[in-house]
Amino acid sequence: MSVVLVLGLALxxxxxxxxxxxxxxxxxxxxxxxxSPEGGxxxxxxxxxxxxxxxxxxxSPTPVPASxxxxxxxxxxxxxxxxxxxxxxEGALAALKYWFEAITYLQLTGEFEPVSAVSAPDCETCxxxxxxxxxxYEAEGGWYVAEGATTSDEIVSSITTxxxxxxxxxxxxxxxxAHDTSGESxxxxxxxxxxxxxxxxxxxxxxWVLELSIADPQ
Length: 218
Fold this sequence. Notes:
The chain is of the alpha+beta class. Helix content is about 20%, strand content about 25%.
């Protein structure tokens, strides 16, 4: 089994020579949170005291998934788990899971800040993947339709005295398709499952992804 330092299958360029296969194209659209006044409200006929009526809180904009018609809109940024600030196995695992949530967010929105916030500066795989996805938005004005990546079967090694940890896991990278600024397809990548390993380090404040090694597809 050969080990590569590039996460998943990458579109080789933004031209028509990219690897072709059918993308699932099924973004999971998160439900917009519905807000409602808290319980205990007074009778609507009763004066509030100052003569003004309580205003209804504004609901969040409805997320719109990416499609061939355009990029995702109002897509929610993944929430940083508190565990990544703890020097524990749970913290290392939380950082890894968050990294993949953040890279999916980048792929769908072009926003790289969240994934950069947990990627070590010299993480080659991290930088390659960030550059790949960000470049389509920044340089080409295009976007991705993507299913995202998920991890499972994680096994965390013991944390060393230097704050390093290794995680063996299974990576399922969903299919994705790239589109240019006019919506034309630039290529598609099928979903794949990989055996993978991640190296992480705790710097006294939070966990960072140092490197990702991905084996050949299973």
